[in-house]
Design brief:
alpha/beta, nine-stranded mixed β-sheet, two-stranded antiparallel sheet, 11 strands, 225 residues, 5 helices
Length: 225
């Protein structure tokens, strides 16, 4: 399977995701933000980091980059797109995903391992997970507080477009297990066609038991499957 990782000035997780993809035998290419075309690809990844130093607001400038027009074209044709952390923010800036990422509820940067629950195991991103499986994944963000209007929130919940929700070790989804104030504890969402996934946690950091754990591996094995 072929993958393309978009690299912006300020990206700091582009190499991490490349290592994870190559470990899973993806044929990966790194694509610079000033490029105006994408190589043949089955998966586009917009990685985490601080694109353009988070000036204006997170993802705002990156969302206007030259390569983004191609990303949008590929996405609308059904290409798989994964946006992680800053990548999720960029996807909302482009309109490929609805909603926005606000400042964390405590107005502080958060970097820690948290638990999330798998709410949809019937997609190309999650088929190797079990429904309601609890994962331990790292988060590292200042603007991870997902928010959207009531109509879209209802659409997300009713159409099974919420990929993951923050929870505790037992799987309880409540205010105490919500690290950033995200509406309904939402940690990741799909678009209506489920070929685009935006998520704040970093699955690429959880692919090696020696370094962390392997809870992120099945996202990549799902894509291969």
């Amino acid at each position: 399977m072929r993958s393309s990782v978009i690299v912006f000035p300020g990206s700091n997780c582009d190499r991490d995701i490349a290592v994870a993809l190559e470990k899973m035998q993806f044929k990966n290419q790194m694509v610079w933000h000033k490029d105006t075309s994408l190589p043949k690809t089955d998966l586009i990844v917009i990685p985490g980091g601080f694109s353009y130093g988070d000036y204006l607001r997170s993802g705002a400038i990156a969302g206007k980059s030259l390569i983004i027009d191609e990303v949008i074209k590929f996405a609308k044709k059904g290409c798989l797109v994964l946006g992680i952390c800053n990548g999720f923010q960029i996807l909302t800036e482009t309109g490929l995903l609805k909603g926005t990422l606000l400042r964390n509820k405590n107005l502080k940067f958060i970097n820690k391992d948290i638990n999330i629950k798998v709410l949809n195991d019937k997609t190309k991103f999650t088929s190797k997970y079990k429904l309601n499986e609890i994962l331990k994944i790292n988060i590292a963000h200042n603007e991870g507080n997902y928010f959207t209007d009531s109509n879209h929130l209802e659409e997300l919940e009713q159409n099974n477009l919420v990929a993951f929700k923050y929870c505790n070790e037992k799987g309880d989804i409540d205010e105490k297990s919500n690290p950033n104030g995200a509406i309904n504890n939402i940690a990741g969402i799909f678009n209506s066609k489920k070929n685009i996934l935006g998520m704040m946690p970093h699955p690429e950091r959880m692919v090696d038991k020696i370094v962390s754990n392997k809870d992120g591996l099945n996202l990549f094995s799902s894509l291969l499957n």
